[in-house]
Amino acid sequence: MLRLEDVTKSFGGKPAVDGVSLVVPAGQMVGVIGRSGAGKSTLLRMINRLGDPTSGRILFGDTDVTALRGRPLRAWRARCAMIFQQFNLAGRLDVLTNVMMGRLSYVGTLSALLNLWSEHDRAVALSGLDQFDMASLAAQRADTLSGGQQQRVAIARALVQEPDMILADEPIASLDPRNTRMVMDALQRINKQFGITVICNLHSLDTARAYCDRLVGMAQGRVVFDDVPQALTDEVARGLYGLDAGEIMDTAGTALPAPATAYRPSFAVA
Fold it and tell me: How far, in Å, are 175, 179, 240 from residue 129 at the CA level?
């Protein structure tokens, strides 16, 4: 179970994440929604410890994630895999090697630099690629793949880390509708088949409603919505996105007028 206790992250004295408290049970698929600048990416980066909270605590089970340093911190990042919008693949390396990079915590950096991968690691990486119908491209350079293919390679790399949790930061932001479905189907399959907790930042409300068990809405660094997808009505969505501006964009790209008074959910976290 992941627990965030009054987590705040400030830049230049201005909070990007402001007093967030959340409990995420193991095995949930959680969508984090909100406007750009709401604090979604900063929140995920703190969970992975790519950034440190200014205050508050992040705990996973009995482990105080915010207190980790050195080798325990590297072990945490292996357990808490991160998927990025821009894929973060080594373009000049082949697909299989990129996926095997997810095994670094098991083999060590020196072995990876010398390309001393074991047959077991190669088999695990090929199996990961096969999960996403990508095994046939194992020998191909990563920078020759389409965006959707590269994101599936990135997800396979995360999977072979054997993580307890996957954090996906806008994984479909640069993809077309077909590849969006393939990537979201892959994340949902990992969640349901392996019981891995998935926390995913998303802009598309339709995608969030369709794939996630739970939605967490953020505005101005705070959690202002936390409920099942069915509770995210159009009125609630207008309120969520209307906290900062007079209109929101629906999933088709059409501007929706905000109500005269922005809706503020009664269960908003203070």
Answer: 19, 16, 38
- Here the tokens at position 184 are 């979201």
**Chain position carrying tokens 């911190």:** 73
Task: Give residue-wise pLDDT tens across range 210-268.
Answer: 999 999 999 999 999 999 999 998 888 887 776 443 344 443 333 333 333 333 333 33
CB atoms within 10 A of CB 19: 17
Distance, in Å, from the CA atom of 247 to the CA atom of 123, rounded to the nearest integer, reads: 50
Q: Give the burial class of 155: count Cβ atoms within 10 A of its Cβ; 0-12 exposed, 13-18 middle, 19 or more buried.
A: buried
Q: Whole-angstrom distance between the N-terminal and C-terminal Cα of the chain?
A: 22
* Rounded-to-integer distance, Cα 231 and Cα 89, Å: 37
Which two structure tokens, joined as six digits, stand for 10? 């400030």
SS3 content of the chain, % helix, strand, coil (to 5): 40, 25, 35
Residue closest to 81 by CA, chosen among 168, 210, 142: 168
Q: Which residues pair with 143 in a beta bridge?
A: none
CA–CA separation, 212 vs 83, rounded Å?
17
Domains annotated on the chain, with CATH: 2-86+167-257 (3.40.50.300)
Q: Per residue in 167-192, pLDDT tens?
A: 999 999 888 999 999 999 999 999 99
Q: Where are the beta strands (DSSP E) in the chain?
A: 2-11, 14-24, 29-33, 55-60, 63-64, 80-83, 165-169, 197-201, 214-219, 222-227, 247-249, 255-257
